[in-house]
Request: fold
Amino acid sequence: MIPPPVGFDLDMTLIDSRRAIMASFAGVAADTGVAIDPAGVDSRLGIKLQDELAHWFPPGEIEHAVRIYRRHYLELLAPLTTRLPGAAEALAAVRSAGARAVVITAKPELTARLSLDSVGLAPDELFGEAHGPEKAAVLITLGAAVYVGDTPADMLAAAAASVHAVGVATGSFSASELRAAGAAHVLHSLDGFPALYASLTARGLPHGAYHVAVKAPLRTRRGAAAPRA
Ligand SMILES: [Mg+2]
Reply:
């Protein structure tokens, strides 16, 4: 039997996009003359782009700022994106077990594809423009067994899809925040993923059959989705 797919978030899970994100916000600030505090942005990495921009722009100007941000991001992603430790090995571990490694991200598909290409990562499938609860819908459709991500929203999506929630504390959120959102396991980096995945598959990974204890409310929280870049 083919093992069920494993889903991965992209930003701050497989790739370190922090520098590209911060530089793109600096570009938005320079182009619009609006002061954007980098520390504020950095403390919330992982929230939806429109929600972050709402901290700095009135509602009527957000979509304009989104367009400026995306223009900068497309130019900056290749030089400023790096692969997080263990990312390639994590995808390889899934593949060598015969399963598909699938990236499910809030980023638009083009930006996600270019980001993956720039760091030499090639998942078996890619789903873009999927925010919090939409990630759960993709996981359910795939019959995935595991979702790996760096935000509480990722853990809530895994729980909503009844798949095994694996948190990686490589973004802006702590291990305790990820556990509170339902992470069954929290890794300091993806370096620990192959061993964890081996132990999970040794126990048998049913398609979407895990029911993770959710300690946080299962709802979409403002700013709880991954960044659209
Ligand atoms: Mg992320």
Observations:
- The beta strands are 6-8, 15-16, 82-83, 101-104, 125-127, 146-149, 164-168, 185-187.
- The mean pLDDT is 89.
- The chain has two domains: 6-15+83-222, 18-80.
- The first strand starts at residue 6 and ends at 8.
